[in-house]
Amino acid sequence: MPYRLGARLLAPVILAILASATPARAQTVDPAIDLNEALRRAAAYDPATPATAARIAAANAALRQAGVRPNPTLGVDLENFAGTGDRSLLDQSEATLYYQQTVERGGKRQARSSLAQADIEIARRRGAVRALDLMARVETAWVEAMSAQAVVPLAQDRVAAAERLQTEVARRVAAARDPLFSGERAKVGVAQARIERDQAVETARQARATLAAFWGGGAQFALDSSPLARTELTDPGPVWQTPDEALLAAERDSAAMRVRLEQSRALQDPSWRAGLRHFGDGNDVALIVGGSIPLGRYDTNRGNIERAQAERTASEADIAAARIEREREASRILARQASAAAEVRRIESEVLPGAQRAVDMVRDGFNRGGGAFTFLEVAQAQEAVTAARARRIDLLKSFHLDGARLNRLTGRYATLIAGSETR
After folding, report:
1. What would the pLDDT profile of 52-76 be if each residue is shown by its tens digit?
2. Residue 396's closest CA among 349, 347, 331, 326?
3. Who wins on pLDDT, 349 or 32?
4. What gap in Å lies between CA 328 and CA 211, rounded to an integer?
5. What is the rounded radius of gyration, in angstroms, for the C-alpha atoms of the chain?
6. Is residue 61 included in any domain, yes or no?
7. Which of 9-13, 36-40, 360-364, 399-403 has the highest mean pLDDT?
């Protein structure tokens, strides 16, 4: 009995504690993920990073191998151990044990090492370009998610406007000022608005899920769509070298090193030999020294040298062409952004205020009755506002998608992913 009484007395206290704790939990909201956080998470989760690190490790291994000298040769020659006449006896045989070493001329080892070092730089630059491509896809997904999220309030406002209009029409139908089909039409408008709202909510969820897939997350996170309204142009100014151009420069340096390597291979490498010769007749031993060098009569490696020189020239032309194309594309993107931003500002200052005033006037006249305005005119006036707001969102989306292309073109996030490709 005392236990039941104590439990009965403690129950209100426990409920009060839980009630006071519940609002605190309800007020806890995860911070909205912005672009920098999305990029950071995607870079940390990037599954291709180990592949880049492995390619760099392979290039480093190739550098170590490039500095290795040719292996020596240890050989044995047996002469006169079988024959006819005086040479048919084993004691007339001669055996030579020798050590042979090829000596590389023309700086071949240094040329190989320089080429391997250039290949390491290429592997790093390719990893950086690949990571920048990932950043561009993440930023594009972020803009798509932001735009989809911005459509949700527009769809919700459309539902509210349709429901408000349905109430007004129902009142007029009840007062026999409008026919019954007007009420049915208003119901259909509400149903269509609700369907579009639900679709907008689902589209926004799918867009968040697509974005979160870059870091292995889910769609249950907050997304701040306020940056979508910003239309400030971000002219990158003069860019000395983008990561793509840096990759082309590394490939040009590699081609130059290959020219040097092929030129060094045109020089023939001599081989030196030293050993001991044993004479079976008398059991004597003698020291021998010799050498050889190929005659560069036919193969002078000229074709490989010319091919390497042509590849170096092509790399230099690729760099110049990439720089021109980058400046040309940046100008086109900035022009599109400026046009979209100007149209957004005009919609905000000229179209939306006037369209909203038209809605207010038509609705006021519709509510007063007298047949000045019909249900269809009210719906059309409201649809004009919705269309203008939707057009604004489409323009803002296009503006920021162009911004993502410009950021990728100029390598804006190169510092963000620096070092991540070798992690």
Report:
1. 999 999 999 999 999 999 999 999 9
2. 347
3. 349
4. 30
5. 40
6. yes
7. 399-403
Judge if pTM exceeds 0.85: no
With a cut of 70, say whether residue 286 has pLDDT above it. Answer: yes
d(CA 269, CA 108): 10
> Bridge-partner residues for 77, per DSSP?
96
Helix (H, G, I), strand (E, B) or coil at 99: strand
Does 370 fall in a domain? yes
- The CATH number assigned to the domain holding 207 equals 1.20.1600.10
Nearest by Cα to 338 from 402, 283, 284? 402
Residue 225 is predicted with a pLDDT of 81
| Residue recorded with tokens 């081989």 | 271
Count of structural domains within the chain: 1
Please state, rounded to an integer, the average pLDDT across all residues of the chain.
84
| Host domain of residue 327 | 41-69+131-242+320-422
Tokens coding 190? 């509400």
- Assess if residue 107 is contained within a domain: no
Q: What angle do CA 88, 93, 98 make, to 5 degrees?
A: 155
Is residue 253 in some structural domain?
no
CB of 113 closer than 8 Å to CB of 67 = yes
DSSP output for 281-336: TTTEEEEEEEEE---TTS---HHHHHHHHHHHHHHHHHHHHHHHHHHHHHHHHHHH
Question: Quick one: tokens of 22?
Answer: 């519940």
* Residue 61 CB-half CA count within 13 A: 6
Segment 261-274, tens digit of pLDDT: 999 999 998 999 99
